[in-house]
Amino acid sequence: MLSCAEKKKEPLVTPWGEVQTDTILPNDNFTVSDIVGNGELIALTLTGPETYYDYRGRGMGAQYLLCEKFAQKLGVSLRVEVCKDTAEMVKRLLAGDADLIAFPLPKKLAQKNRLIACGAGVDSLGVQWAVDTGNKELADSLNSWYKPNMLADIKKEESYLLSSKSVKRHVYAPFLNRAGGVISHYDPLFKKYAPVARWDWRLMAAQCYQESCFDPQARSWAGARGLMQIMPGTASHLGLAMSDIHDPEKNISAAARYISELNGYFRNIPSAAERQLFVLASYNGGYFHVQDAMALARKNGKSPHRWRDVAYYILALEQPQYYNDPVVKHGYMRGSETVDYVDRIRQRYAQYRGVPYGGASVKGWSGGSSTPSFSPMTPRKAKKRHRFHI
């Protein structure tokens, strides 16, 4: 009778096959051994300069970098889920969507929601990371790992990584022979491959100097290599072997193909000269961030196809009221760096052609980290995900 009364439990089937009996469903907690066995630590946070943002395909932000170090200690990879606010982080942690909140959450808020405040934090501000109350093992592991000096140390490390000091290169002169009109030893290569990019070869030369100062052996902490500072992922996408990435001709050839690809994303911009500036910004800061700035320009009644209008909103992506706007899909951006990158290339390109420089992209802004003042807007939404043991 017991056998007849029991309802047969149907197996859970996913596109990858049937889920095993050790399935981790929402509201269950991963122990440290579960996390290690699964090979992945999932953290919830908010986008921002102090928390998490994408920088040339690499996660940055003090909270992210700290969490990455903890994941490395466990020997697992780190996956970050960006939420729209603290309420969503708490809700998703309680639902079992992630292992921890890697964000300075007020301890009172953690206690109110039956979370354990643990790991990285600032006692004077009453903030700390948090895990679910049923995950004391993870909380103990975080507490034994974190030391008060870690936050200051990671901020120093990040500051170094974002500075020019982290790029190893020999600085050559921007002109090899000004009187003879020779910019560099690589002029023949720029002339050969610039048609692939549909650019003036002198614009490629100006960009190359900004990237590597004409040093074919240049490399950055993030892994960018060679004359045009091509990232490993981009090299793979373009079919450029890492063994060839420092070869001047192959590096410039790959960069020209990449520029051509980026150019295609902006084919709806009528002016070729304007289009070049969008491509430069994407080369430096990422196409998706530029797309976010274009969306902000459109929303605010400006032209998404005019560089000066979009550059203003690239700078604005350093401000929370803008990188949290609903039309922004990729969060915080180091916009001042990207606008400065474009302006420096524009200035050098004008120098190479012997024409006057047109001035900064945004009126009243001459580079550096300061940005114009902006009016507040509303935060954006984030996607929700679940995970299973397969």
UniProtKB/TrEMBL annotation:
Signal peptide positions on this chain: none
Pfam families: SLT
Residue span, Transglycosylase SLT domain: 190-302
Region (Disordered): 366-390
InterPro entries in the record: Lysozyme-like_dom_sf (IPR023346), Transglycosylase_SLT_dom_1 (IPR008258)
Compositional bias annotation for Basic residues: 380-390
Entries under CDD domains matching the protein: MLTF-like
Gene3D superfamilies, per database record: 1.10.530.10, Periplasmic binding protein-like II
Similarity comment: family membership: Belongs to the transglycosylase Slt family.
PANTHER family: MEMBRANE-BOUND LYTIC MUREIN TRANSGLYCOSYLASE C, SOLUBLE LYTIC MUREIN TRANSGLYCOSYLASE-RELATED
Protein name, UniProt field: Tail length tape measure protein
Source organism: Xylanibacter rarus
